[in-house]
Design brief:
DNA-binding; Arc Repressor Mutant, subunit A; two-stranded antiparallel sheet; globular; 2 strands; 3 helices; homodimer; mainly alpha; 46% helix
DNA sequence: GGAAATTTGTACGTATGTATC
DNA sequence: GGATACATACGTACAAATTTC
């Protein structure tokens, strides 16, 4: 699964869509922890800031929660 | 009005407080446009990213709205 | 119509601080 | 103390939308 820098949809938006899809198909379980920012950065080949932008969007939408020092968790 | 990098409150948070105070005291009018990101960056001596962080917080709280190419407006 | 200026949006990189394990 | 993970803050560059001339 990769992101495409050549289409008009921003990378962070594409990443949101991938993460949401993975939550819905059970790849990431509700109540479970998402991969770390660095992990996602490496997997998708984007900057950490882009990963954070996507994650913060999930948080803003109430899909996830973030705790400093622990990680970002999918809301049950 | 300046921000203080030496206290624990993040700069973007301090900036939010200043902007909210200015909205409440009428310096920035409801329905009116806030100063541009570059203006705020210069006035407060912080990075544009810090200004954007503060503004996005206002948007998330429903205090302001942003339009690409136009500006950030205080909600009436 | 079109070029320039203004303003927000996206994306990158780096460094350091704070919290948790 | 060390390793891991998120948080803050700086800087840069270019894209996209709007306004102005």
């Amino acid at each position: 699964m990769t992101l495409d820098p050549d289409i008009s949809t921003p990378l962070w938006r594409q990443l949101v869509d991938v993460l949401v899809a993975r939550i819905e198909d059970g790849t990431y379980r509700k109540g479970g922890r998402l991969p770390s920012e660095v992990s996602l950065q490496q997997e998708f080949g984007v900057a950490r800031g882009t990963v954070r932008h996507a994650l913060q969007h999930l948080v803003a939408e109430g899909i996830a929660e973030t705790t400093n020092g622990k990680g970002t968790y999918v809301r049950p």
